[in-house]
Every structure is written in structure tokens, then in C-alpha cells.
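Q: Could you fold this chain for me?
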Amino acid sequence: MAVVGAGLAGTELAWRLALAGRDVLLVSQALDHLGNLYAPTVRDAGFPAGSLFAEVAAAMAPDTDGWTFHRLLKARVEATPGIHLLQSTVTELDEEDHQVVLSTWEGPPLRARQVVLAVGAFLKGRLLVGDTMEEAGRLSEVAYDFLADDLTRSGVWLIGAEAHAAAVDGAPPYDVRFLTPAPSELSGFRVGRLARVRMVGRCTPGEHTYASVLGDAARLAAELLDGAGEDA
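A: Sure. Below is the predicted structure, expressed as C-alpha cells.
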């Protein structure tokens, strides 16, 4: 199993699968940003009970600093048996011989029986701070333009979405525009045109919160573990 994207959804999914004994390749283009949040604090984050994020937030209470949270979360993930971290940028997905081949910007291809895209607001992400636009899904985190183009070439209809991050504790507000599959392209978590590919989190259509994204990751983990997510 390969999970592309190590934000909330990807990190939570990989952690749950690994706790159940699965080996998971968690791929991120920047491992230093693993589990990063949009806000610089976990105050009032509303992480659901039983999630990795809730456990880490509880362990550091009463501190709510986002950097402290990120550091502790990253350490928990790195210490979890079964999670294999890889810093790489996935650019293309090709299904062949009962597996998915993941092409990367760095060159060496990766292979997995199943792939979950948890790439957040990074499919053609464009971040706007005032009059400045950056090709990013979060501040200083580069967008997945090549992967978005590849999904389009595979016939996946992508539509525009937008999210807003309010100013918190001195951090400036910003907006991010990005792409998600049209609702008709997904059947649950499955991408209809790609039999071995699923999507979870903010990269799927609809409104999302920390709680909803982590809840979706938990539901997908349960689906994969009970066999409902396996190909016949």
C-alpha cells in the first residue's frame, strides 16, 4: 500500500493501517512538513477521539503550539513500525500487472498493489496572500501540478475548489485554489477510472474540517482492513 501525501488524511490513514499490521509506504514531497496544519495552533482543533492527532494533542496539553505539535506528531509516525517514509514527488500513476506504478520527479518509479491519494489542496494548488500568488497548497509547500495533469490525461474530470485559512496568532490569512475530482468521478473513496486508486481528505469534493478529514481516513482504513477495499 502506498499513501501519497502526509498531511492529516495521509498520516492518519498510514498510522491506522500500520497499527493493524500493514506495511505502508507514506510518500511526501517534504517530510519536514509531515502532518502540517493550516493553523499555527491546535487550540480548538476538534480532533476526533481515537485519532493520532487527538492523542498527540492530549499528550502535549496544555501547550497548543503548532510547531510543538508537528514535532511530536512526526516523532510518533517515525517510531511506528510498518510506516516507511519516503521523500519524493509523485508525478504519474499507471495501472499495470495488478499493481500501480508511481512515477516520480526524482526518477525511480515506485510500485504498490493499491494507492491512496491524500494530497490535500495540492492538485494544481494556487495560494494567494494579498496580491501574491504561489504555486502551493500551503505556505511554502509546492503544488502537485504534474499529478493533476496525469489524472486529467487518465480521464478523471477535475473541478475547481477553494479554501480559506484565517489569520491566527500573527500568521497572515490566505486562500488556496485547487482541483478535486468531480463528485461523479468517485464511488466512495474509489476513483472510478482507476481501479486501484483511492482518494481521501481535502483532495475530494465537498467541505472539510480537521474532524471530517480524520474521520474519513479512519473509515477508509477500516474499509481497507476488512477487505472491502481490496480488488476482487
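A (continued): The mean pLDDT is 91.
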